[in-house]
Amino acid sequence: MNNHQLLSYETHGNCRVITDRSYTLGDGIMHAMIFATELRASQAHYPIFFCKDNETGTFYPAALFGFEQGENLYLENNTWSASYVPMIVERHPFLIGFKSQDGAADANRAPVVSIDMDSPRVSRENGRRLFNDDGQPSEFLGQSVQLLDAIHRGHSDNKGFIEVLLRYDLLESCTMDIGLVDGTQRKLLGYYTINESKLRELSGDILTLLHAGNYLERIYMVVASLSNMGTLIEKKNTRLQPDRH
């Protein structure tokens, strides 16, 4: 279970955060949510699809890292091989909590920084310091708070992006059968992508509206990102036959 605590110098003054990348540190994930504001950086490295939250029914864009649960093909020798790591991955072990103000309604709760003390990234001996000797937040913690703020705002950006895609029926489910070098196959199920046929049928007026809202560029970034599927398959094939090259 998670052990989320409101971050403070009094409680966490001697805590550090390990920023290495590895399976043991929790980076063995098949995909991760990304935000509309990081589509440009993400599409250069990852295939981008859309997932549907089983509990809420809402869609969100996601970067694909592997072909089966717990697999991250971008982890190589305990490093992340892509130069951009999505924000939702980068933020661990921090998260945004919400603290009620005296007499405030739930909708007006103030965002606060929490830390998951059960995360393998939290250490007393190794990693980046959270606080300086004078009790002030370290540079690393300051950067982490900025990241959390970007994520907080990113959820709103995603909501607007998804609303536009649904309004114009631009999402479609997709199933992919992936043949690998050892003769086996992997099947991707439960993902959604841009319906390019519907996109081509949009009127000029709608395309102008999408462009004005910065949505058209984002749509084409998602489409362009699918060219990274070949790279991801090659990474998988290399793992299956590491001496094939």
Count of β-strands: 13
Taken in chain order, the helices and strands follow as: EHEHEHEEEEHEEEEHEEHHHH
Radius of gyration: 20 Å
Task: Detail the poorly predicted runs.
Answer: none
Describe the structure.
With 245 residues, the chain is of the alpha+beta class. The chain has one domain. Helix content is 35%, strand content 24%. It is built from nine helices and 13 strands. It has helices at 9-12, 23-27, 39-43, 87-90, 139-167, 196-201, 204-212, 215-225, 229-240, and strands at 4-6, 16-17, 31-33, 48-52, 59-64, 75-76, 79-80, 94-99, 110-116, 122-123, 128-129, 171-179, 185-194. The strands form five sheets. Strands 1-9-8 form a three-stranded antiparallel sheet, covered by helices on one side. A three-stranded antiparallel sheet has the order 10-2-11, with no helix packed on it. A hairpin with a 5-residue loop joins β12 (171-179) and β13 (185-194). The longest helix is centred in the middle third of the chain and has 29 residues, at 139-167. The chain starts with a strand and ends in a 5-residue tail after the last helix. The model has no long low-confidence stretch (mean pLDDT 91).
Entry summary:
With 245 residues, the chain is an alpha+beta fold. It has 9 helices and 13 strands. Helix content is 35%, strand content 24%.
